[in-house]
Q: What sequence folds into this?
């Protein structure tokens, strides 16, 4: 580990100069209020800027301020989050907006500890909001910054490991400049996203190449150290596409869990032999059964192998018309809050519907 005092200052100064000349200046949340900065920071967790921008724009068009977000239903919020993944982010954002409406009269809190207390906000996100929206002197440590600092300071070890993370926080605090903090924080984010990228870092254009430990010791591609390999658990599920004409059956998931609060297809977790049992249990008359191509959806912690089975039914069986279930026209279903694999399947069946064939 390294970075004597003279170089620490130089690191921040060079980043600020670089950001002003080469950084990103036209992101839609830049220079906006704390609500929009917060929203962008939450959307940008685990998601690239290019993906986030259209979601962000639709979101602020529908919920232009905290009051509007707090007044919305969770269903409406999740509809706007549909396809962005990591839905707990959307649910926490909504819960936080309601809390701000109640506790702070709809004004985004100004104190770091108050911000950190909100659902879904960790130390780095709270610091980024304070720095970008309120120009407070705060260090951040998101995924991009971890990569830049691990390389620049030559820190070996998996960056999510508590000890390594503590070392990185120490460096982030030490390197923090006294002035121009908002530009510096933006510079770190921009550098991680455009120069010091995971795959092909552009060290030739980097303002801190001269004293970057990884570059100087030819370890750029070894740092940051990869996550220790472990076997990713795999699960198998059957997704039922129960179709009555153009209508499809969707079931609402319980609020907790990976797809909590989203509309999903009936899911049988132990394999396809349970389809017959499901059909019999619910008194469903099937006029046609079609096996669609199986595919795999990868989550952070496991892989889900999905076998989709399309069942055409002449009538909607009463047993499955219960609270938490709904029959929707496929077009309406595609506009609902649904996870990505369900969306892919609905698009597939939409193309196969008779009216589409005729057109
Ligand atoms: Fe990253 Fe390369 Fe710059 Fe080092 S020199 S900080 S590895 S872009």
A:
């Amino acid at each position: 580990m390294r970075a004597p005092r003279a170089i620490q200052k130089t690191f921040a100064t060079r980043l600020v100069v670089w950001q002003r000349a080469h950084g990103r200046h036209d992101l839609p949340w830049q220079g906006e209020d704390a609500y929009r900065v917060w929203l962008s920071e939450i959307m940008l967790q685990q998601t690239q800027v290019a993906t986030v921008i259209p979601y962000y724009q639709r979101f602020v068009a529908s919920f232009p301020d905290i009051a509007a977000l707090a007044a919305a239903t969770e269903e409406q919020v999740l509809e706007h989050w549909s396809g962005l993944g990591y839905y707990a982010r959307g649910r926490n954002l909504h819960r936080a907006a309601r809390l701000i409406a109640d506790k702070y009269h709809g004004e985004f809190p100004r104190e770091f500890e108050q911000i950190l207390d909100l659902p879904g906000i960790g130390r780095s996100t709270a610091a980024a909001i304070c720095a970008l929206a309120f120009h407070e002197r705060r260090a951040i440590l998101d995924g991009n910054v971890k990569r830049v600092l691990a390389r620049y300071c030559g820190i070996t070890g998996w960056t999510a490991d508590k000890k390594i993370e503590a070392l990185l926080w120490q460096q982030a605090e030490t390197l923090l400049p006294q002035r121009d903090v908002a530009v510096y924080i933006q510079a770190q984010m921009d550098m991680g996203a455009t120069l010091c990228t995971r795959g092909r870092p552009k060290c030739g254009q980097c303002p801190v190449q001269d004293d970057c430990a990884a570059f100087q010791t030819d370890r750029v591609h070894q740092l940051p150290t990869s996550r220790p390999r472990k076997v990713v658990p795999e699960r198998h599920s059957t997704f039922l596409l129960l179709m009555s004409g153009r209508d499809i059956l969707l079931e609402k998931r319980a609020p907790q869990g990976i797809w909590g609060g989203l509309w999903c297809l009936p899911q049988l977790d132990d394999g396809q032999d349970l389809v017959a049992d499901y059909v019999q249990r619910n008194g469903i008359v099937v006029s046609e059964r079609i096996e669609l191509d199986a595919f795999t959806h990868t989550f952070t912690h496991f892989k889900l192998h999905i076998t989709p089975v399309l069942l055409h039914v002449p009538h909607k069986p009463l047993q499955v018309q219960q609270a938490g279930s709904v029959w929707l026209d496929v077009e309406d279903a595609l506009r609902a809050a649904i996870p990505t694999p369900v969306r892919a399947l609905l698009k597939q069946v939409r193309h196969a519907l008779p009216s589409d064939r005729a057109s």
